[in-house]
Every structure is written in structure tokens, then in C-alpha cells.
Design a protein that fits this description.
Layout (H helix, E strand, L loop, with lengths): L5 H7 L4 H27 L4 H8 L2 E6 L2 E6 H26 L6 H26 L16 H10 L6 H25 L6 H19 L5 H18 L5 H9 L8 H16 L11 H17 L2 H25 L9 H5 L2 H27 L11 H10 L4 H11 L4 H29 L4
Antiparallel strand pairs: 1-2
Helix pairs in contact: 2-6, 2-13, 4-7, 4-10, 4-13, 5-7, 5-15, 6-7, 6-18, 8-9, 8-10, 9-10, 11-12, 15-16, 15-18, 16-18, 17-18
Amino acid sequence: MKLYAPWEKAFKRVSTPFEHFLHAQTTTGVVLMFMTLLALILANSPMTESYVHFFHTKVDFTVGSWELSHTIHHWINDGLMAIFFFIIGLEIKREVLVGELSNIRVAILPIMAAIGGMIFPALIYYGINAGTQGVGGWGIPMATDIAFAISALVLLGKRVPPALVTFLVALAIVDDLGAVLVIALFYTEQIHMLPLALAGGMFLVLVLFNRFGIHMILPYFVVGLIMWFFMLESGIHATIAGVIAALAIPSKPKRSPANFRKDAKSLLDEYESYPIDENEGMNERQKAILIKLKDNINEIGTPAARLEHDLHLPVALIIIPLFALANAGIAIDFSSISTTIMTPVSMGIIAGLILGKVFGIFGVAWLAIKLKIASLPHGSSMNQVFGVAFLGGIGFTMSIFVADLAFLNTPELIFQAKVGILAASLFAGLFGYSWLRFVAKSK
């Protein structure tokens, strides 16, 4: 009898795109937690100097007199993170076209909750930091880390209804869109019009590729890479190129689903008509049939779906962990940690990510339900929405990203921001998880 390891059974299981998305986010959350702890250990160990020196090492690309030179830290934040933002763009597009945001009656609650969860934290932070040097960091507590938040909810298993998981996913997607807009509109210091116009030209080329029915990935990759470079030179954060490029990726199949079923059945019938020799294997005609079947499968799939599926694990296992390793390492002086947390920047972030998210997400959701503008996620209770609002306070990845932009060239404020982000995210995650596990009950 053939025995299978448990993970082999998991790989054999057929998952929907949404289930695959949840699995990828949970994987990201676990790896992200490990790399964050590693970064903190390295930053507070005898290896601190080597750790800092490594990420400040310059990597240059030179062609003749032209040179592009940045530190490893910069390449991760501006280069690799563009792929992360590309995935965000694909997720936003999928949710709007066929996901939870495609039906306005279902989408209205997470959309309103997400908007409340961005406005309230920003207002609370601004109120605490008004008139101080750190006032520009108002965008930091607006973000929710989708990987950590979803990981915490998925770990609860059947204690939370599926509709509540879907609600958090939709909320986090809208939150990501808000973060992208904030970065593009408010955290750009100086705009150079010629590179920006050239980046716009590259986006137009991508749109034309889509309109002409080009489904090959390579042309989009080459033009998208050129657009990223022009965006980098324009002064607008280069990662925005990832989101914009994702919008141009085709989301419609090349082959009709109805024709695919008919053609696939015909090909499989022809394949089975040939005798199979266990010693010699398939004949040449059978191999040709399988190649044709594979081509048909690729044509019924969409480039957007293929890219989202293929890039999720590399982003989850390489890019986001590298970002955490490069950015989460802060040297903590425990004798002065209480003083750091009491600074306006840290307090603004902590209050924004905890109180602001709860007031924004839970408060707006409660009001929308009471006014009958929206309805509760199926099978859930307001108690559970309260717990989800706390999970929305896990800022981490996007909050750290915005902090680096908001306090560019101000290491002291970046340090205060990261202490606030880590403290708030830890409390929000633990409290939200505990509330959903031990207090909140399904409807």
C-alpha cells in the first residue's frame, strides 16, 4: 500500500484561487514573523555592525557612462518591493472584477470599514503630532498588514465563519489600495516631468498590448521593467509602477471556456484511443496531444491569474522576508524604551493602529449596519467584527514602508516609528486573536 506524507496530500488537494491566496498569506505571515525576530536578534547582538554594513553595501549597474547605484537596502525597498506591489495590484484587480469587491451590496461593508480604518488612525496620529517634526508620518498607522492579519484569522480555523475571513480580505485589499494612493500622492518629494511622461508612455504600451490580445508574459515584463526605471527617475516611488503595471495585465482568457471543454474532451478521447505500452511509454502522437492540451489550458487561463499564482510564493518566501530582515532590525535600548514609546511619533502610531483602527473599522461597520446601509458577514457577530478591527491594527510591512518614506534622512524618527509599529502590531495581533478565540462567538 502506497503511503503519502501529510504535506503531499495537501499538495494534491485542488484549491480555489481564494484558498490559494489565503494559503499564500498564511505562509507569508509565518515566515515574516521568523525573519522579524531574526532581524531584531541581529540588530541587538555582537553582529550589529555587520548586519547594518551588509544592507548599506552598494550594488551598481553600469553601461558605458550610465550608472545606477543604490544600497542593498534601497534595492530591496525600491526594486523587489515593486514586485510585492505588483501582486497587490493583481489582487485589487481580481477582487474588483470577480472577487468580493465586484458586488457592491457585499463590498459596501468592507469598503466603508476600510475607509474608516484609514481616516481615524491618520486623524489620531495628526492630533498627537500636530506642530511637531513628526507630523508628516500621519500615513503610517493607516496601513494594515494583510499577511499577519489573515494569518491570525486563519489560525482560528472554524471558530470564525468563512464570511468573516472574506470580510477581512476585502477590507485589507481596499486598505492596500488606500496605502498605494497615499504613497503616490503625499510621499513624493519632487516630480521630474520627463521621466514621468516616459513612464506614462510605457503604461500606454502595456495597455495597447492588452487591447491587441497579447497574452505572452515577456513583453509585459520588459516594458514594465522600463516603466519601473522611469518611475524611479521621476521621483514618484518606484513601487507604484508595480501597481500600475498590474492594471494592464490581461484578465480575460484567450480561449472560450465553452470551446475548451469540447476541445479537451476530444483530445483526451484521441489520447485514450492509442494503446499504452508500459515498457515504451507514450508514442509521439500522445506526446503531441498532451502538449496541445497544455497549450489549451494556458489559453483558457489569464496572464493575471497565472502571474498572481506563480509570484505569490516567491513574494511570500523571498521578497517580504528580505524586506523584514532589512527593515525590522532596530537596536533596542531597554533602559530607554519607555522614553521612546512616549515620544509623539510612537504614541501617535500606537494610538492610531489600536484605537484608530478599532474606531474606524468597528465603529463605521456598526454604524453602517445600524443604518441598514450594509449587513453583517454571514454567520458572524459584532463581537467578532470587534476582534477583526483589532487585527486591522497590525500595520507592520506597509507601515514600516511608509515610515521610511515619511521620515527619509531622519533616522531618529524612523527608529521611534518602528518601535511604535512593532509595539502596536504585537498588542493588536495578540489582543485580536485572543478576543476572537476566547470571547467572541459566532452569531
